[in-house]
Amino acid sequence: MQIISELLVYNTLSRKKEKFEPLNSPFVGMYVCGPTVYGDPHLGHARPAVIFDLIFRYLMHLGFKVRYVRNITDVGHLEGDADEGEDKIGKKARLEKIEPMEVVQYYTNRYHAAMDRLNVLRPSIEPHASGHIIEQVEMVKKIMDSGYGYEKNGSVYFDIEKYSSKHKYGILSGRNTEELMAYTRELEGQQEKKNAFDFALWKKSDPEHLMHWPSPWSEGYPGWHLECSVMGTKYLGEQFDIHGGGLDLQFPHHECEIAQSVAANGKMPVKYWLHNNMVTLNGQKMGKSLGNAISLEDFFAGNHQLLDQPYDPITIRFFMLQAHYRSPLDFSNEALQASERGMKKLLSAVRTMERLGTSDKSTSNISEIRDKCYEAMNDDFNTPILISHLFEAVRIINSVNDGKETISKTDLELLNETMKTFVFEILGLKEEEKSDSSMVDNLMQTILKIRHKARENKDWATSDMIRDNLSVLNIKIKDTREGAEWYIED
Ligand code: ZN
After folding, report:
1. Domain residues for 461?
2. What is d(CA 404, CA 414) in angstroms, rounded to the nearest whole number?
3. How would residue 80 be classed by pLDDT, with cut points 50, 70 and 90?
4. 3-state secondary structure (DSSP) of residue 477
5. Do residue 251 and residue 316 come from a single domain?
């Protein structure tokens, strides 16, 4: 298909847009760094999930067979930045006196629930770091065999100076070793390392550390960067197509992943590195310590002092897709409310489209709109441009509906297919979630309308049947001058 050959993606590694040519087309291997599961998912979790869901959906739409791996980090994510401090999940387990795996399960469930509401498709494989300790130990051995790892007091570190003498460390972020030195100088607890910027492959555990495994070096646990190298290799091969994640992971996490894979397997692991930009809230960086990390649950329920109202999960999804994934995105009540209005307009036009009449000829060029939608997505997944073309379609739909323009039958079919493909299948939007109570009320209004019609036609049998059946459910109907009302009798 013509469309496939034209897809351009911005590769962080080359710092330019490149034609997307998978290593083994039509198969595509895509790895995205997933969540660390020790707290409720918040906005920062939603953006990479939604963005890579968009990419996953679009690649599948183009006909690629995508194996999408997104990991669950459940071990090795420490409180400190310098391979020191308590494991975040272990700490939560200790404080709450529960098993670390209970913490992991609890927050994984909550993550899934939030992602489902954002209409994020589940990945093909969702591996846990703790389920791949044997493979991680094997990779540390390979790195040591190739001479890039060294042991000190039961812990193993990656030797960046030695690696830099043969390879380029910092290739992704463009940082050099002097900058690394400046970055790591202030960090605490560097005594065991040859150089402050070396990173841990394996850490010997302290006695109070809850999660630990045997290894040739010590009873301990793997360094955080190792899991992604290991699980990427295991499920997608030593070289695969796409590696994604938030821009905050580019350095040091992804840089370390590259170094580990090159050291262990002798090749660059990834063809295209894709990074989404970060979210801010009212212009400020978000973070637990800053007190403005609003959980997704709170967004959906409107339960936070910074929020004016609840926001439908799909509104949040739409808002994220209105910005290009490589641009920063600022959340504010005003911006979300504008998105809410925009999305209602879009979805309402899709409903209007269903009942449009057709004419002999069209006043607008529908196939041009369809082509522009593909062009936008093929230009590094440019969703804001795509959405602007969809709104041009909205304008045409409303104009035809008002009798100001006409559309042919063939063009209406093309428009219908274009709108449904891009709005639902690719952008992953859907009608607003209805709460159970509003759903029940809508159903009751329908039933009352049928009863009203029956009474008008003097069809007493139907009218009585509705009353008797509702009565069994303790639902009573009261006729008033304005029409019928319903209530539940205690
Ligand atoms: Zn990762």
Report:
1. 436-488
2. 20
3. low
4. strand
5. no
* 383-401 and 366-378 helices, crossing angle to 10°: 160
Instruction: Specify the CATH number for the domain of residue 50.
Output: 3.40.50.620
What single DSSP character describes residue 435? P
List all residues 6 or more positions away from 242 whose beta carbon is below 8 Å from its beta carbon.
Answer: 9, 28, 29, 30, 31, 55, 270, 271, 272, 273, 274
What spacing in Å lies between the alpha carbon of 338 and ligand 1's midpoint? Answer: 34
> Residues 332, 243: one domain?
no
Percent of the chain with pLDDT over 90: 72
The residue that leads in pLDDT, 76 or 275, is: 275
Domain boundary among 426, 448, 463: 426
User: Ligand 1 centre from 381 Cα, in Å?
Assistant: 22
Q: Beta partners for 486?
A: 477
Q: How far is the CA of 420 from the centre of ligand 1 (A)?
A: 34
Amino acid at 129: A
For residue 2, is it within any domain? no
Ligand 1 centre distance from Cα of residue 57 (Å): 21
**Average pLDDT of the chain?**
91
Out of 231, 246, 276, a domain closes at: 276
In a domain, 114, yes or no: yes
> What is the model's pLDDT at position 372?
96
CA angle (85 as vertex; 80, 91 as ends), nearest 5: 110
Residue 288 in this model has a pLDDT that exceeds 80: no
CA distance 411 to 366: 6
pLDDT at 1: 43
State the distance from the centre of ligand 1 to the C-alpha of 78, rounded, in angstroms: 14
Q: How far apart are CA 88 and CA 410, in angstroms?
A: 58
365 and 447 housed in the same domain: no
Ligand 1 centroid to Cα of residue 253, in Å, is: 6
431 occurs within a structural domain: no
The pair phi, psi for residue 200, each rounded to 5°, is -80, 135
DSSP classification of residue 295: B
Question: Is residue 441 domain-shared with residue 416, that is, in the same domain?
Answer: no
Query: So what's the pLDDT on residue 38?
Result: 85
Digit-coded pLDDT (tens) for 403-444? 999 999 999 999 999 999 999 999 999 987 666 666 787 788
Q: 483: Cβ–Cβ under 8 A, 6 or more apart, which residues?
A: 448, 452
Distance (Å, whole) CA 127 – CA 72: 6
- In total, how many domains does the chain have? 3
168 Cα–ligand 1 center, Å: 20
Radius of gyration for the chain, computed over Cα atoms and rounded to the nearest angstrom: 28
